[in-house]
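Q: Structure tokens for this one, please.
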Amino acid sequence: MSSIPKGSLKNPIHFLALGFGSGMAPKAPGTFGTLAAVPIVVGLSYCSSMTYLVALLAVTLSGFWICGKAAKDWGVHDHSAIVWDEIAGFMLTMLWAPVSWTSLIIGFALFRFFDIAKPYPISWLDKNVGGGAGIMVDDLLAGVFAAVLLQLCLAIL
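A: Here is the predicted structure, written as tokens:
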């Protein structure tokens, strides 16, 4: 994977694509990007459901452009350091979950599982959708899968 151009953290679009710098972790940048989403989710848990939903929509809709722009600037589709999609995906995972240590840990594990394993149709989307949409959509679907299983887990607990 090619390196990120020097000074990328100074570019506001790249800074966001890099998940506030978390995507520059030398190992497991997607995991670090998801970790960067945890304080966002916790902070939004103190807000109304509508505020959380508006924030999720803003992160998601802007992500199509942010991720696409960073990938174009760096000349690499879905560079591993682009983790804005993980932030959106984890926010989606936690959308209707009551925030607790239990829900955060289970939601985190489920989201990372689906994001890494990419079962069908996530894998199909990852391979067949280009640009910013291609970077975002597989993580959003991983977030949906994780959200459904998280709700089932929480119903059992």
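A few notes: Residues 8-156 form one domain. The longest helix spans residues 49-74.
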